[in-house]
User: What shape does this take?
Amino acid sequence: MNADIAVIGGGIAGASVAAELAGGASVVLLEAEARCGHHATGRSAASFSEAYGGPVIRRLALASRAFLETPPPGFVAVPLLRPRGMVTVARPDQIARLATELAKARDLVPDIHAIAPDEVEAMVPILRPGHIAAAFFEPGQREIDVDVLHQGFLRQARTRGARVMTGAGVTAIRRDGTGWRIDTTGGEVRAIIIVNAAGAWADAVAAMAEIAPLGIIPYRRTAFQVAVPDGVDAAHWPMINDVDEDFYFKPDAGRLFVSPGDATLSPPMDAWPDDMDVAIGVERLEAVTTLQVRRVLHAWAGLRSFAPDRVPVVGFEGPGFFWLAGQGGYGIKTAPALARIAASLILRGAFPDDLAAAGIDPATLSPARLRDT
Assistant: This one.
């Protein structure tokens, strides 16, 4: 099979960039699993926050908000965002850190504000009285319907002519004249450009193409669900987030979604939850709330893959090899902006003017920054 561009990886990064590229080039999307989004994309906390993440991540989220709030006609049939709100909390020993994070957040999100502990306890009545010493509230935080967003990108890619190949794990990559020959478990593909959107496997894909790895490291993150107490309506509770990310929890389909905020080094793999991480999460939940967890209803884990500086990598390295990797735990909320950047660089050789005007510096995303160090 021949295409102008082969996108490797069918998660949110690969699906979104395939959708953007397909309008201007022939595209094939290669996914190793039987369905796209099996790994990190399908295991996301689905939070849209403009105050969570470093400065580059936050600007990318701001640049993605308009798409998520008002997607293109025909992209989806239901809203992508649902109101939630997020309260970031601190114990007495974390108050200085909370003040620092609040000041940073206000730079880009002016409606974030301090909130009294008793107000937080009124919002979420299972919180243990007196445990929280200080907090701030992000009223504009939303929940993202990740599956609808991901399927929207895949549908848009197909509508624009892209071919999506599942069960097509890449086994070898070699130069073929001015392009590439890619061997997959679903057959051979030839392309002029490779887009490496392989998530936790990004460095492995680069190595097959004889491109030196960038140090994209996967970290395991655990999540689980527990029951909401009988008679308690938690549907409208905000998300509660510890300022040091030692835990976070929120309502989720009639249950509580909980994470201990773990970040354990992992090889690229189909991640599963470690019992100790789940136990730590339960312990931290019980410390901050009055809940006594009798049973974990469901637990899972996913991989969050970071570049060494914790900023996504977007750009060409060598003829015809393009990185779109290292989104960490922020890939869902930044996908619209990152896909636009990648497609613009690939198809037009230029960074989008509006995103540059929004304070996103192309040099901070380029793979060259990591080679220079």
